[in-house]
Design brief:
Elements lengths: L6 H14 L3 H4 L6 H14 L4 H8 L6 H7 L9 H8 L2 H13 L1 H11 L3 H12 L8 E2 H10 L4 H16 L9 E2 L12 H7 L15 H15 L8 E5 L15 E2 H6 L3 E2 L10 E5 L9 E3 L1 H9 L3 H14 L16 H13 L13 H14 L9 H6 L1
Antiparallel strand pairs: 1-2, 3-5, 3-7, 4-6, 6-7
Helix pairs in contact: 1-11, 3-4, 6-16, 7-9, 8-13, 9-16, 10-11, 12-13, 15-16
Protein name: Lytic murein transglycosylase
Pfam families: PG_binding_1, SLT_2
InterPro entries: Lysozyme-like_dom_sf (IPR023346), MltB-like (IPR043426), MltB_2 (IPR011970), Peptidoglycan-bd-like (IPR002477), PGBD-like_sf (IPR036365), PGBDSf (IPR036366), SLT_2 (IPR031304)
Amino acid sequence: MRVLPSPKAVLHRTALIALLATPTLASAQCGGGFQNFVRGLKDEAVSAGYSIKTVNGFFSGVAKDSKVLRADRSQGVFQKPFIEFSRRLISQSRLDRGSRKGEEFDKIFERIETTYGINRGVLLAFWAFETDYGAVQGDFNTRNALVTLAHDCRRPELFRPQIFSALELYRKGDFDPARTTGAWAGEIGMVQMLPGDILEHGVDADGDGHVTLKTSAADALMSAARMLSHLGWRANEPWLQEVTIPAGMDVSASGPAYKKSVAEWEAMGVTPRSFDFAMKDVEASLILPQGHKGPAFLAYPNFDIYFEWNQSFTYVLTAAYFATRLQGAEVYNAGNPDTGLSDGQMKELQRRLQDRGHDVGSVDGILGANTRLAVQQEQMRLGLPADAWPTPDLLNAL
């Protein structure tokens, strides 16, 4: 039975929605003196209907955290290629612990699978990568991190609304501004969710009257499942499957931007490794993270949902692959990929692609979606295997 919130709760929720919908919050009112910035936040919160006592209690002792800014500017781990990155994150110990956690929380996973149709391997993989099954949740003060990142002006449209979501959690008794800690970017709990996502998708799965993602595995897992379902997860469908491609196959249609039915891929000679193809009428993308000589996967529609959780292609592919391992898939065939580029070479490649009119985003040395697509287009122009994997030969050809 759905329990309707009290009139007071409705008032605060309406005020919060109005506050987050204010156009100026997305782009203006960042930078300048930190204390002036905080005063502006407090004034807006009061004008939205929060009591002065609540606002003062939330912002009491708020401070700028320089460690947060350093962390924001040093995310070099995502520059590593898939094979190196996945081997770094996936160990037999993590697999064994995932198996034990699946058994320990079997009942909550059964609820999730029944309610949302999301395989336990998917959530176990997130749980493992985000916090090592809850062991490492981050020690950054969440309120300070959010205020620091909103003040920084790099992405105020992302972080500023999260401040007011945290304020609403504080009003509800589910957030302690002095003691709540998490990741440098403001994520909280065992599966690292932002305050706004906790407000919208949080589930009190253990029935204690609070949504506690830091200490309740049941709350964390059920909340993550509800969020994935809201983002469009297709119930009881696969997300990723390792495949083998035939020698000499035309790979110009590989990559997340291109889709064919599984039956069409099969007709081209693509075959599964661990399990048979279960849904041949569903469209999928052929993913070659390190080119046509390396690992190969078919990515199903649910794979796209991973990018709503994290924008890093390498992270997403590794998390999706680890989820298949937790469900019994074998270790991928690493193959013998062509040598990739160093950080300096990758940045030089991005500059040369920009000179040719390609939109690769910032020159950051990360092989993201835009850079991959530009590489593939140049490979086709030059008559090279168009697998979106940049090599020194491609760099020299450009």
